């Protein structure tokens, strides 16, 4: 990455108090959380179905044991720590420069880094609820379970508050995301290929002229970016001063 582009980003950040960040899996992979969509042999290792099938609503209903085998193995990751990107975003919010983080990740690392206004489009592994009595459980409770997690109150099965394939996104969260993006001075998009719904659709609500795109590989939106930086989001953010 060129230092010239970092300087441009620095200048943008210095001169605003209305940044909105939209992040995808790439933000979490730098904390060691695998992107289950990446084709790294995960498909053909121990599972008879592709991740998109296992993480679907109908699969969760029809084969909960198999769903949870995958979920515990690949999704419920509690050892990861926030990286430089999470930390800088929390600092930007604290300094009044950043209004919201909108994320496709479900790992809660933004909150762990100190971010307050985090819109989790796909839910969170840290919220789980009994499908029978609605009692809520944290991720630690889930981690202790084997097989299908059951409610300690009523014995009902517990479902993670994670948006599965075939399930709709939370309307209120989406409306808030649209509100923040449509009012943003700077929209920074990081760590997403922008191929996954609803990323591309949300970005259409941005009205400004400072669209910053940070990703390791090319995305279909590259030509729309006012500032395009290819590289590690953690490395880039760690160079920004507040
Ligand atoms: Zn219950």
TrEMBL record:
Keyword Aminoacyl-tRNA synthetase: no
EC number(s) reported in the record: 2.3.1.286
Binding residue positions for NAD(+): 25, 29, 36-37, 104, 106-107, 122, 192-193, 215, 233
Binding of Zn(2+), residues: 130, 133, 151, 154
Catalytic activity from the UniProt record: N(6)-acetyl-L-lysyl-[protein] + NAD(+) + H2O = 2''-O-acetyl-ADP-D-ribose + nicotinamide + L-lysyl-[protein]
GO MF, any single term: histone deacetylase activity, NAD-dependent
Function recorded in the entry: NAD-dependent protein deacetylase which modulates the activities of several enzymes which are inactive in their acetylated form.
Protein name as annotated: NAD-dependent protein deacetylase
The species this protein was found in: Eubacterium plexicaudatum ASF492
Highest classification ranks of the organism: Bacteria, Bacillati, Bacillota, Clostridia, Eubacteriales
């Amino acid at each position: 990455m060129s230092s010239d582009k970092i300087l441009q980003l620095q200048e943008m950040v210095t001169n605003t108090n209305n940044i909105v960040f939209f992040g995808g899996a790439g933000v979490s992979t730098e904390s060691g959380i695998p992107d289950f969509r990446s084709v790294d042999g995960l498909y053909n290792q121990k599972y008879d179905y592709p991740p998109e099938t296992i993480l679907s609503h109908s699969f969760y209903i029809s084969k909960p044991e198999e769903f949870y085998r995958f979920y515990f193995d690949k999704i419920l990751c509690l050892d990861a720590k926030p990286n430089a990107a999470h930390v800088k975003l929390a600092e930007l919010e604290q300094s009044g420069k950043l209004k919201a983080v909108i994320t496709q990740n479900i790992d809660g690392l933004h909150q762990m880094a100190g971010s307050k206004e985090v819109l989790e489009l796909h839910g969170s592994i840290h919220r789980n609820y009994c499908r029978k009595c609605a009692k809520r459980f944290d991720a630690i409770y889930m981690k202790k379970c084997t097989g299908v997690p059951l409610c300690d109150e009523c014995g009902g099965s517990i479902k993670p508050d994670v948006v599965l394939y075939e399930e709709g996104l939370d309307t209120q969260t989406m409306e808030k995301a649209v509100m923040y993006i449509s009012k943003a001075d700077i929209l920074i998009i990081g760590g997403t290929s922008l191929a996954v719904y609803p990323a591309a659709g949300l970005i259409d609500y941005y009205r400004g002229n400072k669209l910053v795109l940070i990703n390791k590989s090319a995305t279909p939106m590259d030509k729309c970016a006012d500032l395009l930086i290819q590289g590690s989001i953690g490395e880039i953010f760690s160079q920004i001063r507040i």
